[in-house]
Amino acid sequence: MRTICLYFQIHQPFRLKRYRFFNIGNDHYYYDDYMNESIMRKVADRSYLVANKVLRQIIKEYGTQFKVAFSISGIALDQFELYAPDVLESFQKLAKTGSVEFLAETYSHSLVALKDKNEFARQVDEHRQRIKHYFDMEPTVFRNTELVYSDTIGADVADMGFSAVLTEGAKHVLGWKSPNYMYCNALNPRLKVLLRNFRLSDDIAFRFSNQAWSEFPLTAEKFVTWLNKMDRKEETANIFIDYETFGEHQWLESGIFDFLKALPGAVFRNSKFTFATPSELVQHLQPISSISVPYPISWADEERDLTAWLGNDLQKDAFNRLYSLTEKVNRCTDLRIRKDWKYLQSSDHFYYMSTKFFSDGEIHAYFNPYESPYDAYINYMNVLSDFSIRLNALVPETNTDQEIVNLTKVIDEKQELIRKYEVELKRLRSSKAKITSVHTIKPSAKKAGKPAGGKKTLKRAKPGPVKKVTVKNVKKTSRVKKNK
Q: Which among 171, 175, 115 has a CA at the least distance from the CA of 145?
């Protein structure tokens, strides 16, 4: 069986607002809501919704002959809920077709697999639950953030119960071997490994609209001729790309959606290839050998390593400072702390700090909302400083931290007491004002002389020297005249 495995990654981070030094300790909300919503809506309208519509049309035409796989980060799902519920609904419609598989990954689209096995497993489990909740599927295949993989990470993934993992078919790992076979993990052979065919994938993802490319323009028929040139013994062509390729990285005007729509028909007409999901490949293919990956690889940049996120001192410092808080966060039950912890782990924050200005500088700049890597680092570290202060207040570690917590509680209690007294004082003043208004006699304009109707009146006192009036020398007197 010769198959094509189409897989699309979907992720959008919660981007941070401009968070300055003077915000530390005063402002505990870190996110740029306007930017996040506007970017999500733009990508949804230009990419996700249009591409999903095309896929539904393909599935309507070819049924379960056509297969595709997705991984959607937990953070992207959160943003769908907030800003683009129509996108979430469109993916749920695809899930019901029977032609779509959803993979598991880290909830935060994080690099936690490099740091903490327990936190890694917790994030994956949380993501599994979200996929089950939204799409009624239990993922059996795993895709780590940016296809980051090593022998150790693969063994951890196998311990979580997954049958297969996706990663990059990096040249320095494969050597003379081909990415178009099924492999297995070097430490735990039960875990199967699917490798990305980076040449065919990048032809679509990066070179499709490049008019300087010798193969421009790329058509579905031309792409199928390349597939047919594969060695007949090779079993699968794994095309792994970002879903934003359709409509965002490659614009509608480039013809990318026409290419996607025409590809299945060209495959069925002009080749013996079929389409399969990763879990179907696991069932039908056997590993030809193990693949040894002693050091982590990824699908990023020419080096296919971790330098896009951990290639300089800024990135390493921020990364290490973040995960130095893991133990404290695990002891914290505050929901806001837990949510911020998830969002701050997104690999994008470290990607923005990259100083790779040469071979891959253009793509790093394209996705970067900061003017420089140093701005990205300062902004992130300011946020992390405030997060640490909040965390220390909830989970004190040293005697000094405990004293600060105790003093903070005393101050909060005093402020609450002052607030209650102010409310009571305001109430008493209001009551006093009402009583005074009731007892105040309003003077009325009357004629001078004896009042009509024989009404009683007070005699006006003769003017005399002004005396100091005190409570003791005031006597209430009145003269009453009888009316005859």
A: 115
Residue 331 has a CB neighbour count (10 Å cut-off) of 10
How, if at all, do strands 164-168 and 182-185 pair? unpaired
In the numeric block, which tokens belong to residue 64?
Answer: 């379960």
Gap between the Cα atoms of 365 and 351, Å rounded: 10
Domain residue spans of the chain? 3-299, 307-424
Better pLDDT: 94 or 449: 94
First to last CA, the chain: 130
What order of strands is seen across the sheet that includes strand 141-143?
141-143, 164-168, 192-196, 182-185, 290-291
Q: What is the pLDDT of residues 306-346, one digit of tens each?
A: 999 999 999 999 999 999 999 999 999 999 999 999 999 99
Structural tokens at position 11: 């992720």
Q: Cβ of 472: how many Cβ atoms within 10 Å?
A: 6
Burial of 182 (0-12, 13-18, 19+ CB in 10 A): buried
- 142, with CB counted inside 10 A (0-12, 13-18, 19+), is buried
Encoding tokens for residue 279?
A: 């879990």
Q: Report the amino acid identity of residue 81.
A: E
Largest Cα span, the chain: 136
Q: Which residues pair with 8 in a beta bridge?
A: 70, 241
**Under 8 Å between Cβ of 243 and 70:** yes
Which amino acid would we find at residue 330?
Answer: N
- Catalytic residue at 61? no
Residue 195 β-bridge partners: 167
Q: Name the nearest CA neighbour of 370 among 355, 388, 385.
A: 355
Strand ranges in 103-173 using DSSP code E only, listed in sequence order: 141-143, 164-168
Average pLDDT over residues 374-395: 96
Give the distance, in angstroms, between the CA of residue 126 and the centroid of all CA atoms in the same chain. 14
The predicted-structure confidence for 449-465, as pLDDT tens digits, reads as follows: 444 444 444 455 455 55
Query: Quick one: residue 144, left, alpha or beta (phi over 0 = left, psi -120 to 50 = alpha)?
Result: beta
CA 373/CA 314 separation, integer angstroms = 8
- Using CA atoms, how far residue 11 sits from 214, 265, 442, in Å, is 31, 29, 74
Alpha helices (runs of H) in 4-63, residue ranges in sequence order: 33-43, 49-62
Which pTM was predicted?
A: 0.81
Residue 253: partners with Cβ closer than 8 Å, 6 or more residues away: none
Residues β-bridged to residue 240: 7
CATH 3.20.110.20 is held by the domain 3-299: yes
- How far CA 164 is from CA of 17, 142, 241, 278, in Å, comes to 38, 6, 18, 8
- Which one is catalytic: 146, 235, 244, 280? 146
